[in-house]
Amino acid sequence: MKPSVFKRWLWVIFMVPAIAGFAADDEITLMSHDSFSASKEVIAQFEELNNVKLRFLKAGDAGSAVNQAILSKNNPMADVFFGVDNTFMSRALEAGIFEPYNSPLLADIYDHLKLDKKNRLLPVDYGDVCLNYDKKWFADKNIAPPGRLEDLIDPVYDSLTVVENPATSSPGLAFMFATIGRFGEDGYLTYWKKMRDSNVLVANGWEEAYWGHFSAASKGNRPIVVSYASSPPVEVLYAKTKLSDAPTAAVVSDQSCFRQVEFTGILKGTSKRKMAEKLVDFLLSKTFQEDIPLQMFVFPANRNANQPDLFVKYAKTAQRPVMLSSEKIAENREKWIEEWTDTVLR
Amino acid sequence: MALPSAFVFARYRFPGKSLLQAFSTVPFVLPTVVVATAFQALLGANGLVNELLMAWFDLSVPPVRLNHTIWFILLAHVFFNYTVVLRIVGGFWSRMQPSLTEAASMLGASPRQVFFRITLPLLRPAILTAGLLVFIFCFSSFGIILILGGPRFATLEVEIYRQAVYIFNLPMAAALSLIQIVFTFLLMWVYTTLQRKATTTLDPESVTHTQKRPVGWKERGFIGINGMIMILLLGFPLGALLIQSFLTEEGISLIFFKALFDNPVQSVFYVPPVKAVTYSVVFALVTLAFALVLGLLAALYLAGKKNRLSLLLDPIFMLPLSTSAVTLGFGFIIALDEPPLNLRTSLLLVPIAHTLVAFPFVVRSLLPALRSMPANLKEAASLLGAAPHKVFLMIDLPIIGRALLVGAVFAFTISLGEFGASVFVARPQTPTMPLAIYRFLSQPGAMNHGQAMAMSSLLMLVTAVGFLSLERFRIKQIGEF
């Protein structure tokens, strides 16, 4: 290698990170999990209004992102974090990585979603994890689709269900919480024992369950899958040909879904508190909230936000979903997963 | 399974050879979820094979029930790692002089005897290396097991992820990572000690002398059967994938590929396919440069000196291979958070992370070639007045050229296909192709699935093209011996 080339490389190797390390003043960074998304238009609106550049940092799935924010709390990588959900909430709060912020927009947010009384974490959206079924399969076989969690242990539904492993998948974990809410801490294992007897299939992740085994989406042979209440409208949105009706439906009867709430918060140690507040306000504003459904396929937390036609038509939310306190989840998560694994897999 | 192919590729020239070789590299880069769906579409309960068999033999239950069995995992591992053995052993074999085996046959040894007494022992370092790489790769890569094996086959890797992400018990995760690392270290140490004893020097031979056109039906048949096996093993799953990216209910169509260019919901994170390909290729090239330079330096050192330090360093160089992605990802966050090395948000982190994974492959592909190089060649050159750098350029480089190329191909393909660590270090607006594929797969809707398959087909294409151009590059730059 010629010396000049070598020097140039040295320059690249040391200067690029140095430049990248010093963020410009008119820039603000939002850290989130992989599933975060928004329209170009909406983001541009925020940038123009506040004369700032919005940078994004995605850090793996929800759990990994929260953990990375905690690990870097002495020298935060971002100013605002989006995507802590109620299953990881207590961990984030205990680690003390968020500053309280009493946003004026909290007045428009549904009260039942405000789980942190100190407003360190502010609710942005919610979604229900529940059973989805293949409508055509049940119509062809002339079998009634399942309506409640108890139906799955009926012999009629033997070998029809695929669920995700709560140890490796977040919808899997949420569904296990749903059964705990429905049958109680004492009863849920009995339910899962019967699920095992009726040959429930356990996949490790949502992708494998949905694309590998769910009959409506793949060559699989399971017409019932654990997914989201918003999956049917997404099936319509991303269908190959225009559909007049969703090919799948969600079971949202009382106490059969687990509600996941996602929060945003200002990271402790930010040097741009004022701009961070503006960003949080923006995430709670009607503009951003109305953008949420088609970008992230969850429901807006702002009660003034209108939902798109697609969601009005095909998406259902549970009237009475299961909600567990985040302290209870933090306390028992490991024990529950262990018990579940013993009952269903070993 | 790959050994016969290594022989064929090492000893014969035939039409379509480099194409076939390129195509055997492809599985190595494909994301596990994608391969899993391909296998599912092929061998699953409602898969192609079962449907055909059921139609032909009038069966009511699917005869092939591989799902969530150990055989499914094994098959997938063979599918992924075929190319590792093929490249390393084949590269080494093609450099081996035929004179030894010829002499043995002349002295009356049967082909069988020649193979077991001469060829196999000489090949041993390369076979050992390949076997080791495959073993470590299987030991640490959990994706395949996780997806095809189902939750019953949990590995150490899964447990590390669970401890680190779900339970946030980092000390426990770190302890498990250490166990994994120590195990790899011990394995490597045993292997390097063995290998040092096994190494024999060989006079390098030009490929033009060792390779010939197949003669007679026996040789042609052998190559043919080999090709068939490769197609069965590698081609069918890949074919299933390709078909899925083109097939809709109405027949063959390009809608999935067209859809890649649309951004229906106007997301900020939409990445046009051309850009995703560009990012991937640029990252892969940077990785290739980093890994080759580092790998070459490391391999030269290891091959040259035989002291305690190099004995210790050798296994240490292999460690990144067995370190789990979560450990790497969190490790970067913790280690690189202070200036001057605040690289956490730098774009450079992607090739750095990829280099870490590719580096052991480069070292391992170079070592057998370097070790088998007779010292007298270099000494002769020095005696004739060549300066050290000239000796390196004129003697070392041409001889290890082939091995260097193998290393380059590994670095390039590993970077193209890497997913686990990329999740942590890649920036959302510059995703690599595997990340783009996962993005599609993380949402419901037939269109998303189709686009994931289309993107996978593109990834296959890019890999094959990259491979072929690397091969070409070799002939121009280094030339044949």
What tags apply to this protein structure?
heterodimer, A: alpha/beta, D-Maltodextrin-Binding Protein, domain 2, 12 helices, 42% helix, B: 481 residues, MetI-like fold, two-stranded antiparallel ribbon, 22 helices, 1% strand, globular, disordered C terminus
Write the layout of secondary structure elements.
The complex is a heterodimer of chains A (346) and B (481).
Chain A: H1 3-21, E1 27-32, H2 40-50, E2 53-58, H3 62-71, E3 80-85, H4 89-94, E4 98-99, E5 122-134, H5 135-141, E6 161-164, H6 170-197, E7 201-203, H7 206-213, E8 224-228, H8 231-237, E9 248-250, E10 258-267, H9 273-284, H10 286-296, E11 299-300, H11 309-314, H12 326-344
Parallel strand pairs in A: 1-2, 1-3, 6-7, 6-8
Antiparallel strand pairs in A: 3-10, 4-10, 5-8, 5-9, 5-10, 5-11
Helix pairs in contact in A: 6-12
Chain B: H1 3-11, H2 17-29, H3 32-43, H4 48-57, H5 70-93, H6 98-106, H7 111-140, H8 143-148, H9 156-166, H10 170-198, H11 207-210, H12 216-246, E1 247-248, E2 251-252, H13 255-259, H14 273-304, H15 308-322, H16 325-335, H17 349-371, H18 375-383, H19 388-417, H20 422-425, H21 433-441, H22 446-477
Antiparallel strand pairs in B: 1-2
Helix pairs in contact in B: 1-5, 2-5, 2-12, 2-19, 2-22, 3-12, 5-7, 5-19, 6-7, 7-10, 7-17, 9-10, 10-15, 12-22, 14-17, 14-19, 15-17, 17-19, 18-19, 19-22, 21-22
